[in-house]
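Form 7-S
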Amino acid sequence: MSEYNHLFGRDCKLSGSVYAVSEIKGALSLIHGPAGCAFHQRLTPGRLYEPIYRLASTNITERDVIYGSEETLREQIKNTYKRYHPSLIVILPTCVSALIGDDIHGICQDIKSQVPCDLIYVDSEGFSNRNRESADDLMQEAAKSWIKPQPNACEVRGCGQEEVVKALIDQLMEEKDIIENSVNLEIFGRYRGCFERCLKEIQKIFTDIGISVNTTILGCTVDDIKRAPSAQLNIIMRDRMAAARMEEKFGTEYFRKRPNHYGIQGTERFFLEVASALSLEGEAESVLKFETKRTLEKIAEIKNTLKNNIFAVSASGFLINPYLTKVLKNDLGANIKYFVVNTQSLRNMNASDETLKIMLENMEKLIEEWELGFEFIINPRLETMRMISKKVDYILSDRPLPDNHAADIGAKVINLSPISHLLFLTSFKGYVDIGRFLVMKTQNRTSIKRSYPIISRFRYNPIDYPLIQDDSCVASCEMWSEIWRHRRDERSSQ
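Output:
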């Protein structure tokens, strides 16, 4: 649901900023804007599983818009501390307050001596989102990194989360003495079920190697953030621009997770390369040899079970990544016969023809190079999907197909969305969990009894789910995407 909330729900930069602040223990967002804007940010795409209850607002009115809202902001900063007693208040301007032109930076400087907690502000105005072309740049860089694994050079500015981290670097972090062989981990997900377990596994492996975890960013306390510059190395999963800023200000070098760090062997490679960056590769080899051996022993029984089924992969979202499909095929032993890619979802995200060409060519090249042994099919028609369904036992999908569409093609569909986070974790145990999930599904076992609401009876578009299968809706979606593609092409030709 998070993906669809991003695409169709309320999802401006402010939303990402509110989520990022909620990751920090003891921090509180003060939204400088109308009450309605703050109310709708209580449920953000980053954490649909739990609303953000601790959220303050300046509740500016029409009078504030006309005469200025700086005094309102001053009073609400004091009131926010008096009511919630946070360790950190993060002021998040909205489109309205930004258009007024309030001097938020000056107010923070004037009032910080009057509140006994830390105070920072973030550029979170919704209208300053990144442009649509940046999504195409990100996808193209990712596709190129499949062939030549390298850190993504594109800026992720505009999602709101990176802006929070950069504000913390500039306004909260303090110069510290370096702790030898220590690292910071960039990990979002303090409220997610797998966060603590994944973190414990990483910490244990690093400890066995001789590396200490200084702090996590952002799932940590305010004091942890202040002492983040004492780490010798930053390990980042996505936030390259903020890491570059921290290197510029404090000299902290960074190491970025790359596509070839997925899977069991990829996870081993990740830890070895981090250890090598700290000149501890010798200590790491024996530790990782043991972890890999233990993981393979646990997966052996899973592979023995999954080999009895034939699978097809239906990729229109996160599975459009050859490394993740390689995990299913090689690490877990899934007998995959077809790999089906639907590019319409990428087009809806503003992927250009050039980017799609690079992605598909690189995927096909790696499938052949790795000898994965399955047929690669692009944008199949309904008749082709029916044919595929007859030749496989299950279709592994990265999107929840509507029941009526699954019935149309005669398929048994296993939706991988509930475990998508496990594919991206830096965790040996995570791959064991993925395998157990597939075994449970193929043996028709389930941990909970599912219910099907009336809304599931609608006929949905099989490509742009959850778009209703209606000619006018489909035409509107195609027209919208085409308009943006023409606009991008016009800009690129200028």
